[in-house]
Amino acid sequence: MNKRIFLILFTVILISVFVGCGKITEHTSSKKVQSPTSTASKSVETNKSTSVDEAEKTTSESVVSPSVPATSTPTITSVNGDFDYSKYTLIVVDGGVMSGYRKPNVRVDVGFGDREYWAFTNEYGQLIRVEAKNITLQNPNTEHVLSSGRYYSDEANVPGTESPTLDKGHVIADSLGGVSNAYNITPQDSILNRHGDQAYMEKVIRDAGGCTDFVAVIQYPNTQTQIPNHYKFTYKIQGRSITDEFDNVNPDEVNKNLGKTTGTSSTPPKTDNVPANETVSSDEDVSKVDTNHNGSVTIAEAKAAGFKMPITRDSWLYKYMDDRDGDGLVGE
To answer: 180: helix, coil or strand?
Structure first.
């Protein structure tokens, strides 16, 4: 009898042990650990469900949270104390992103490498300002530069650049250390960008070896377009302030129209035999323009002294300058 009871008790204990193990096994198998592969698959599916621009926004932009320590959050050295920097959220965007989308009310560093060139957008996503305390020229000996002279093979597809007459125009050129994402690109008249005031301004800065206190202010005709109608650039070369201001139009057409207009031309009349595009000089003292005193005057020096380009053959300053193509114009 005792032996039978013992066998029954032993059987009950064995059954209990097996049931407990089964429950443990079942509980453990219900916890599925998500593998890196499944995570990646989910990310791919998410991107597939968005447009190209949305995908680029997701993968190429990041917001710097206010909780990030101050030492790791870039700060802006103010170029203009009148500008309210506090209303713009700092985000990071890769310099080669081709998306034309811009987030509203943000600031982005558009300087290649260690440069700090700051771009700002308004509430409509329009690029309204780009500034840099110091413009540092591109250095192909120390930086990765393509054979084309650019950092990237293409520029951002900002709405409007699909027009055959508008370039993907850099606000700060590759040669001056600017990147190619949408925060440094505007649709700009191709003649203006390649041969007009924009190209000339970039050449002046290159010839001077860089500049300081660079500010570009960009205006638009309305809140719906991403095509500017006016640019204003201010910067300093050798401590002298320079302002370049022009509309986003074909300069050849403007010059043509000015030539046909009488009495209402925006070109000031000549004064005391001084060409209309020059600042009046009372003593024609070249030493005031030739700042390095080497006997010749560069375009950068002339512009820093207040002269507007081109310098024509009938200008007293012309003989001190290098007219390489011999057409009677310097800085055209």
So the answer is: coil
- 3-state helix, strand and coil shares in percent for the chain, rounded to the nearest 5: 30, 20, 50
pLDDT score at 125? 98
Give the list of residues 6+ apart from residue 310 with CB closer than 8 angstroms, or none: 277, 329, 330, 331, 332
Average pLDDT, rounded, for the chain: 77
Q: Does residue 47 sit within a domain?
A: no
Distance CA 178, CA 169 (A): 11
By three-state DSSP, how is residue 46 classified?
helix
Q: Are residues 215 and 130 in the same domain?
A: yes
CA 201 to chain centre: 16
Which residue, among 331, 327, 324, has the nearest Cα to 313 in the 3D structure? 327
Q: Does 28 fall in a domain?
A: no
- Per the listing, tokens 């000996």 go with 141
Number of domains observed in the structure of the chain: 2
Question: Same structural domain for residues 196 and 161?
Answer: yes
Specify the higher pLDDT residue, 205 or 268: 205
For 150, which DSSP code?
Answer: -
Q: Note if the pTM is more than 0.70.
A: no
Together in a domain, 101 and 243: yes
Q: Is the pLDDT of residue 40 over 50?
A: no
Contacts of 135 (CB under 8 A, 6+ apart): 117, 172, 176, 177, 205, 210, 211, 212, 214, 235
Domain boundary among 227, 259, 291: 259
DSSP code per residue over 252-305 = HHHHHHHHH--S--SSPPPBTTB-TTS---SS--GGGT-TT-SS---HHHHHHT
